[in-house]
Specification:
single chain; about 475 residues; mainly alpha; Hydantoin permease; 23 helices; globular
C-alpha cells in the first residue's frame, strides 16, 4: 500500500480484501427491504394516486420503473463485488483519478438533498407523535425544529459508529418494518370499509394521450428515485461474498419490496379519500388525523425506524466516500458523513416536499438528468470498452493508466456535459419538454454514445494496457 498516492488513498477508500467480504444474499435483500420501506417510497405511490392514477396504474408504473433501474444497478454493482472498490474509486477508471471528483460530487449533492428530506420527514414524525401524546407541549412552534434537529443528531450518531452499525440496522429492521406496514394497511382499510371502496376509485385520465403525459415523467421519476444508489452501489457490493449473492439479493429485494410497500401507500392514500374526502399523500399528516394515541404512536415509531434505516444506508454511505475522495488524507468516512449532514440542512428539504408535483416531477425527474449521464459513461467504459477489466493499483496512483491528462479524462467530462445538457434542455425550451420528461433515459443514452465514440480509438490505441488480465488486489 506504500506505493499508493496519499492524495488518492485512505483506509475507507481502500479495496476490501476477500477476508472482509461478509455480506451475503440475505444482507443485500434486507438492505433493499429496509431502504424501500420508507416514507419517500410511500409518497411515490401516494403522489401518483393524488395525481390521478388508478391503483393498478400506480403499481404498474412503480414496478416498471424499479425493474428498469435494477439493470444499471446490477451492472454497476459488478465492479464493487469483483474488485472491492467503492464508487468514487471505480469511477476513476472512466473520469480519471482526479476527474472522478466531478461525478462523485454531483452524486454527493443529490445524496445530501435526500439526507435532508429524510431527516425532515423523521423530525415531522416525532413532532406528530408529540402532538398526539402531549398536545400542550407541542403547541409551541419551536418544538417542530427541536424534533427535526433531534432526529438529525440521531442520524449523525449512527454515522459515527460506522458501516457495521448500518449493516446491523438493515438486518434487524427489515422484517419488522414490513410487518408494521402490513398492519397499518389492515387497520386503515378496515376503517374505510375494506379494500372494495378503497380500490374502486377509477383513473381520472380519459384518453391514452392524457395518461401518457402523466405516465412518462412518472416512470422517469421512479427510475430517478434509485438512480442515486444505481451509481454508488459498489459502496455496498464491495463487501459481497460473491457476485451471485449481490445480484440475487438485489433482484429479490428491490422490485418486490418497492411494489409491495408502494401498494400499501396506494391503498392507504385511497382510504384517506374514502375517510376524509381528499387524498392525503403525506403519511405523517395522515396519522395526525387519527386521535388514537396507541396506534398512531406505534405507526410513527415504525416510520422513524424506516426513515433512519433508509437515510444512513442510501444517503450517507455514498457521499461520505465521495467527500473523502476529495482529500483522503484529511477527510475520513466519518468526516464525510458530518459534511453530508450539514449540507443536508443547507439544502432546505422542507421546500422540496411542498407537494407531489415538486417531489416527483421537480426533484426526482430533475436530478435524474444529472445522474443518468454518469451511469451511461460508467457502464459504457466498464462493460463495452474495458470488458470488466481494471488495474486496481492504478486507481490509487498518479501517472498510471487512469491518469489521462493531469488526472482528468476530458472525453468523459464532454460526454457527461452533453448528456446533462440534452436531458435538461426541456426546462428552458418548451418545445423540447419531452426530453426532460425522459431525463434519465436521454442523459444515459446521449452520454454513453458520446463517450463510446470519443473513447473507442483512444482506449485501443493509447491505453491497450487497460485490456490486460484482471489485476490482483493487494491485501
Amino acid at each position: 500500500m506504500e506505493a499508493f498516492d496519499p492524495q488518492l488513498y485512505n483506509k475507507d477508500l481502500a479495496p476490501v480484501p476477500p477476508g472482509r467480504r461478509t455480506w451475503g444474499l440475505y444482507n443485500y435483500a434486507s438492505l433493499w427491504i429496509a431502504m424501500s420501506v420508507c416514507i419517500p417510497t410511500y409518497m411515490l405511490a401516494s403522489g401518483l394516486i393524488a395525481g390521478g392514477m388508478s391503483w393498478k396504474q400506480a403499481i404498474g408504473t412503480i414496478f416498471l420503473g424499479n425493474f428498469i433501474v435494477l439493470i444499471p444497478m446490477i451492472l454497476n454493482a459488478h465492479a464493487g463485488a469483483k474488485y472491492g472498490v467503492p464508487f468514487p474509486v471505480f469511477v476513476r477508471a472512466s473520469f480519471g483519478v482526479r476527474g472522478a471528483n466531478v461525478p462523485a460530487i454531483l452524486r454527493a449533492i443529490v445524496a445530501c438533498g435526500w439526507f435532508g428530506i429524510q431527516t425532515w420527514i423523521g423530525g415531522q414524525a416525532i413532532y406528530s407523535m408529540l402532538r398526539i401524546l402531549f398536545p400542550a407541549a407541542a403547541s409551541n412552534p419551536y418544538w417542530m425544529w427541536i424534533c427535526f434537529f433531534s432526529f438529525w443528531l440521531l442520524n449523525i450518531a449512527v454515522i459515527w459508529r460506522g458501516i457495521e452499525t448500518i449493516k446491523f440496522l438493515e438486518g434487524v429492521g427489515a422484517p419488522f418494518m414490513l410487518a408494521v406496514g402490513i398492519l397499518l394497511l389492515w387497520w386503515i382499510t378496515r376503517k374505510a370499509g375494506g379494500f372494495g371502496p378503497v380500490l374502486s376509485t377509477p383513473s381520472k385520465f380519459k384518453t391514452t394521450s392524457e395518461f401518457l403525459r402523466f405516465f412518462i415523467p412518472s416512470v422517469t421519476g421512479m427510475v430517478g428515485f434509485w438512480a442515486t444508489v444505481a451509481l454508488n452501489i459498489p459502496d455496498f457490493t464491495r463487501y459481497a461474498k460473491s457476485q451471485r449473492d449481490q445480484m440475487l439479493g438485489q433482484a429479490l429485494g428491490l422490485p418486490t419490496t418497492m411494489t409491495l410497500y408502494s401498494f400499501i401507500g396506494v391503498a392507504v392514500t385511497s382510504a384517506s379519500v374514502v375517510l376524509f374526502g381528499h387524498a392525503i399523500w403525506d403519511p405523517v399528516a395522515l396519522l395526525g388525523q387519527f386521535h388514537q394515541p396507541a396506534i398512531a404512536t406505534i405507526a410513527l415509531i415504525a416510520l422513524l425506524i424506516a426513515t433512519l434505516n433508509t437515510n444512513v444506508a442510501a444517503n450517507v454511505v455514498s457521499p461520505s466516500n465521495d467527500f473523502s475522495n476529495l482529500n483522503p488524507r484529511l477527510i475520513s468516512f466519518r468526516t464525510g458523513g458530518l459534511i453530508t449532514g450539514v449540507a443536508g440542512l443547507l439544502m432546505m428539504p422542507w421546500k422540496l416536499l411542498t407537494d407531489f408535483n415538486s417531489y416527483i416531477f421537480g426533484w426526482l425527474v430533475g436530478y435524474s438528468g444529472l445522474l443518468g449521464p454518469i451511469a451511461g459513461v460508467m457502464i459504457t467504459d466498464y462493460f463495452v470498452l474495458r470488458k470488466t477489466r481494471l488495474e486496481v493499483k492504478d486507481l490509487y496512483r498518479r501517472g498510471g493508466r487512469y491518469e489521462y491528462r493531469h488526472g482528468l479524462n476530458a472525453r468523459a467530462i464532454l460526454a457527461l456535459g452533453a448528456g446533462i445538457a440534452v436531458a435538461l434542455i426541456g426546462l428552458v425550451v418548451p418545445a423540447l419538454r419531452w426530453l426532460y420528461d425522459y431525463a434519465w433515459f436521454v442523459g444515459f443514452a446521449v452520454a454513453g454514445l458520446v463517450y463510446y465514440l470519443a473513447m473507442r480509438r483512444a482506449v485501443v490505441s493509447s491505453n491497450e494496457a487497460a485490456f490486460l488480465p484482471d489485476a490482483t488486489i493487494e491485501k
